[in-house]
Structure of Ribonuclease HII:
Amino acid sequence: MSLCGIDEAGRGPIAGPLSVAGAIFINEIEELDDSKKLSEKKREELFDKIKENCHYHIVFKSAKEIDERGISACLKESIKEIMETLKDKCDEFLMDGNTSFGIDTLQHLIKADATIKEVSAASILAKVSRDKYMNEIAPKYKEYDFDKHKGYGTKAHVEAIKKYGRSDEHRVTFRLKALGEEKGSGVQKSLF
């Protein structure tokens, strides 16, 4: 049997979904790395190769789900869904990061996305899937330029929120210091 690498994209943005992916090699793939170290063009090339050469599963959690249940709960649910879906294809699961979210059969390793090829593949699947989603919704939310910053809290994005308020793709529990929002009950994190 083999290893299933798991990684996420979109834990920190103030808009858009969380994307979590799991990948198990059927065939070896060259040139894999942490998705953050690769160009957008290279990630997209590898995305198709990974889909052709891996068993994989990708889970999305919407901004609304993140607001309702919290980012950690959404991550844990996504990991469990991946593990359940791919359990017959591998005998080990490895998540990038410093926690196994209380899941006994999940191993974790910091910087696994840069050192373990299966986790690199999952990192690319999660990132490209999420970026594609943000590009697809961008025309509907023209004032926010989601295709440029992918929902992360750039200065331009924060300025757009100041001007237009939040859309239904924004995480309302992610408070922004730049907007004078204070950390309160149910708030996920404080940015800027």
In short: Residues 117-137 form the longest helix (21 residues). The two ends are 45 Å apart (CA to CA). The chain has two domains: 3-137, 139-191.
